[in-house]
Design brief:
Chain lengths: 209, 579
């Protein structure tokens, strides 16, 4: 029969049209909200979603996975006295690995000893050149630079990020990437413990030798 | 890993006077003298049976004062390729005989070599610039050519560390200061009229009216931008009534000289740039580049990573073909509903990419020897849900939705795209070649990674028309799902990278050509290393670009109304085409 194919196709659109309403009703009967809730958004981006798919941005926002990457930021710890401890040692690996070469670091020397100061004097990232590849965070040996989740940074001018804009506390990092943070903390503690054990062993071995 | 190439064919014995084996360490193939190139190439095609010329690549050896053109020929029946090269002195005019008569697919690639390297191909019917604009001064891929805002030959730049006082490149190099004008040049009096060449190349195909009526052909310019927003492409057409009698694509609007950027980068830095070639399929692009560098480095890939790579590449293929169906229907006038349906599944696949790699489209997921990070358990579960349940059902639904639709069938059925013979002659690869009845799929013909462990069929159809070109995409989705099912079942536990993470890799000197079956066709990478941290030559052989060579052949004699659909069949992406 001519037109059978079209009818078959229309049955698909017809079904999908009703799917949305049937989903809505079933959520309502279960006393749950399909829109504007985290559960609803999660369900709409899962493999068994049916019906309407849209996320009503900006009222609703997709939940970013932990690995999501946008612009980089620098991590600092706050010590017991409330002093900032920047993890970056200005070793320059991020500046060397950066594909579009958008990282600029000024390393300065100690006026007394003449040796390089571990903390960077200046640190710039040209956010408009950054291609969000994540290499800087991946290859940083000190876990000092990490990729941010904040993607809404439209502005009228160039986004040149300096130290002031780049530095964020490690609690912020823990907030956006809890699993990565926990893994790195564990590794660091294990390393410190190993170091301490080694030092202890060396200390106890010294007198006999 | 691939066996040593080419020496299975004894070309030297056949042409003792004009062919010699390439003896440079790390290189393979044959060096052919310029004078006998056409003769040898004809023999390679007709006597040795290498019917598919996939890549024509120019290399600038400035230190040896030589230019080289590297040809890669393959058999459509499968097996390793044959590499032959021709070397000429690096003194302008650099002339090499054209191979367009033997392999029509050399057309655009020779134009590219002329444009970017300045090699004149003698006998080429239409040797104009292709990616740069007419009137551009110089040939940018030559090693002595420097771009605006040039800083250093290779990255990392010294100004970034340890004394990286930030400045903006444009403030150091303001407009007009970085341009060289010829003497006596006044930009105000310049009238640009470089279109003559384009239109005269169209003229070649005009037909004569024999019925005595005085009729004119009409030249129609579609784009830049229209055709049909696959990207910024312009096509100049000559029409006889409604019939297309001449056609020339004009491209390069998105050109950024990816090859030159690659030669400035270190090996690792190129990976995120390959994402931006065919931005629908960044995983496939990563794949092609990674296996090429691994070939050069002679390293094995971690077992688990091989499977992860295959899973990602096949998921990419599924979403690409779904989007193909959606956008093709857009091109045909069924606006939005099919493409939105297709985009649903694509979104779910991109969610997976985002969870493993951190980005939806610019994945940057592959590293030499493996991948960046493992697939977390909850993501693996999601992949399983998709592969075993949702995707097969949704592919069925998509087929029910469209494939029997009488209007669509009437529109597509019987509109000839390419015959098998023409497709091979024009170096067309991918689904378009397979829909013409040539079962050529690199995953089978020249297996890479772990594809030889999976049981799947090469999708092939024989009618050469648009309907077959459309349906073969669905066949391929089904085969991809088959591969995914096996890969998910077989994936072993273990490390995801065979190498230690390193931001600088050591790549021994030599050359390598790696290719993968990307959703759009053969995606090849050609890399020459001289042992330094940056490649000496980095070339992408994009499927979209080479497939475009056949566009003219496909469209001549058809009606203008079919043009957009025919273009849609090639499934081009401008990021890869113009690169």
């Amino acid at each position: 029969m001519f037109g059978k194919g079209i009818l078959k196709g229309l049955s698909v659109t017809w079904k999908r049209f009703w799917d949305t309403y049937l989903e809505d009703i079933s959520w309502m009967l279960r006393g749950k909200k399909r829109y504007y809730t985290e559960e609803g958004i999660k369900h709409r981006s899962s493999a068994d979603t049916k019906g309407i798919f849209t996320i009503q941005y900006p009222e609703e926002q997709l939940i970013l996975p932990e690995e999501a990457r946008y612009l980089p930021f620098l991590v600092y710890n706050v010590d017991a006295e409330g002093k900032k401890e920047v993890l970056c040692t200005s070793c320059g690996i991020c500046a060397k690995v950066c594909p579009p070469q958008c990282i600029w670091i000024v390393r300065s020397n100690d006026p007394v000893t003449g040796r390089p100061v571990p903390e960077p004097t200046e640190f710039y990232i040209d956010g408009d050149i950054c291609m969000n590849c994540g290499f800087c965070a991946e290859y940083c040996p000190f876990d000092a630079i990490k990729m941010d989740h904040d993607f809404a940074i439209a502005s009228y001018g160039r986004n040149v990020l300096n130290m002031e804009k780049l530095l964020k506390p490690s609690s912020y990092y823990e907030g956006i990437r809890p699993q990565n943070f926990a893994r790195e903390e564990e590794a660091r503690k294990a390393k410190e413990a190993a170091k301490a054990a080694k030092a202890e062993a060396a200390a106890s071995a010294a007198p006999t030798a | 890993m691939a066996a040593p190439l080419t020496l299975t064919v004894n070309l030297v014995a056949r042409f003792p006077n004009s062919v010699s084996a390439d003896a440079r360490p790390g290189y393979s193939g044959f060096i052919v003298t310029k004078e006998s190139l056409t003769e040898v190439a004809t023999a390679i095609r007709d006597e040795f049976g290498y019917d598919l010329l996939t890549a024509v690549i120019a290399v600038d050896y400035i230190n040896e004062n030589k230019m080289e053109v590297v040809y890669h020929a393959y058999k459509t029946t499968g097996g390793p390729g044959l590499v032959f090269k021709v070397q000429v002195e690096r003194v302008d005019p650099i002339e090499v005989p054209s191979l367009v008569e033997i392999w029509a697919g050399a057309d655009f690639q020779e134009r590219e070599a002329w444009d970017l390297h300045g090699i004149k191909f003698i006998g080429h019917p239409d040797l104009r610039r292709i990616l740069m604009w007419e009137g551009f001064d110089g040939h940018p891929l030559r090693k002595d050519w420097k771009e605006a805002f040039y800083e250093e030959d290779t990255k990392p730049f010294k100004s970034r560390w340890p004394d990286g006082q930030f400045y903006m490149a444009e403030s150091k190099n303001p407009f007009k200061d970085n341009i060289n004008f010829p003497k006596d040049f006044d930009p105000d009096t310049l009238i640009v009229d470089k279109e003559e060449d384009l239109y005269s190349s169209l003229e070649r195909h005009s037909t004569k009216d024999d019925d005595g009526l005085k009729t004119d052909h009409i030249v129609v310019n579609m784009g830049p931008h229209h055709p049909s927003t696959h990207g910024v492409l312009r096509v100049a057409l000559t029409l006889d009534g409604e019939t297309i009698v001449g056609l020339k694509p004009v491209m390069g609007y998105l050109h950024r000289n990816h090859d030159k950027i690659g030669e400035r980068n270190t090996y690792l830095q190129i990976i995120p740039y390959t994402d931006r070639l065919d931005y629908f399929n960044s995983m496939s692009n990563n794949f092609g580049y990674a296996i090429t560098v691994e070939k050069l480095m002679k390293i094995a890939v971690a077992e688990r990573a091989e499977y992860i790579r295959v899973i990602m590449a096949e998921l990419t293929r599924i979403q690409n073909h779904l989007v193909f169906a959606g956008t093709l229907l857009n091109d045909l006038g069924a606006m939005y509903t099919p493409s939105i349906y297709a985009f649903e599944e694509r979104e779910l696949i991109l969610d997976i990419f985002e969870e493993v790699s951190g980005a939806r489209m610019m994945c940057n997921y592959f590293r030499f020897g493996g991948v960046v990070r493992d697939i977390p358990d909850h993501v693996m579960q999601k992949i399983k849900d998709l592969v075993f349940e949702r995707l097969p059902a949704k592919t069925d639904e998509m087929e029910r939705f469209l494939n029997e639709n009488e209007i669509l069938v009437a529109r597509l059925k019987g509109v000839h795209v390419l015959s098998a013979e023409d497709a091979v002659r024009y170096s067309v690869t991918g689904p378009v070649l397979r829909a013409a009845g040539v079962p050529y799929d690199i995953r089978r013909a020249d297996p890479y990674s772990v594809y030889d462990r999976f049981d799947f069929d090469v999708a092939v159809r024989y009618n050469c028309d648009m309907l077959d070109n459309y349906l073969i995409r669905f066949d391929e989705i089904r085969q991809s799902i088959r591969i995914l099912e096996q890969a998910i079942k077989q994936i072993p536990q273990g490390p995801i990278n065979s190498q230690k993470p390193a931001y600088q890799v050591r790549v021994p000197a030599g050359e390598a050509y790696g290719r993968v079956e990307s959703p759009k066709g053969e995606l090849g990478f050609y890399i020459i290393s001289n042992g330094k941290p940056n490649p000496w030559r980095y070339h992408v052989r994009p499927a979209s670009f080479v497939n475009m060579t056949a566009l003219e052949k496909m469209c001549l004699g058809t009606k203008i109304a079919d043009f957009i659909a025919l273009l849609g069949m090639l499934d081009i992406v401008m990021g890869e085409l113009d690169r």
